[in-house]
Amino acid sequence: MAGKASKEGLVAAALAAMKEMVLAREPGERIGSLPEIANELGVGTVTIRQAARLLEHDGFLKVRRGNNGGFYGARPNAEAFGRAVADFLQLDQSHEREAIEIMTLLDCDLMAAAAASSDDTLRAGLQSLAQQIDACDTAEQRASFVQKMHDILFKMVDRPLMEMMLRLSMQHYSTRTGVQIYEGAEAAERWKLDRHAIVYAILRRDPDLARFEAQRRRNYVLQRAAAA
Fold this sequence. Notes:
Layout: H1 7-23, E1 30-32, H2 34-41, H3 45-57, E2 61-64, E3 70-73, H4 78-91, H5 96-115, H6 120-130, H7 139-156, H8 160-176, H9 185-203, H10 207-227
Antiparallel strand pairs: 1-3, 2-3
Helix pairs in contact: 1-3, 2-3, 4-8, 5-8, 5-9, 5-10, 6-7, 6-9, 9-10
């Protein structure tokens, strides 16, 4: 495997081989130690360490130390996948408005689906969280609230693909774009009103109203994004 290949080629080949080893086993199974895998693939431990670091970043590998330590297979979750695709979008120079359009469109479906949920425990958690809305005066506070709210909604709505795509667009928007939708006192108050209305519709178990409120918020966000 080593041959006269370039350093980058060795790492790429080791990464591909290790991923095959991971996917051939159940998540959580031990793949091997650093020396064991290096010996099996016929490359140096430095190459394996670099490949393992990349796999760990992508959510395919976990490193354990101590007794029975080594590399263990894993599966990337929506958040890890979102990070990887967000990096791709940055390289591809994805437009800011597209991320906002996708994020707000998916939000409309998410809010409507959450309103149809029958999980009273999660509803109680959302109702408790909603008490923080009026105290969200800064962009950081609003971002934290939105993250917590979506964490609850994703549990209320068992749609992994929607969650993955929405987390991706949210992450791309928050880390890659410079658009500030709710900048200024008037816009911040609008944010609070929008959140109260959406939460009210969800707690009322009214999918149509939840979609309406989410769509109204989407229209506002897109108008502000266009102006920005």
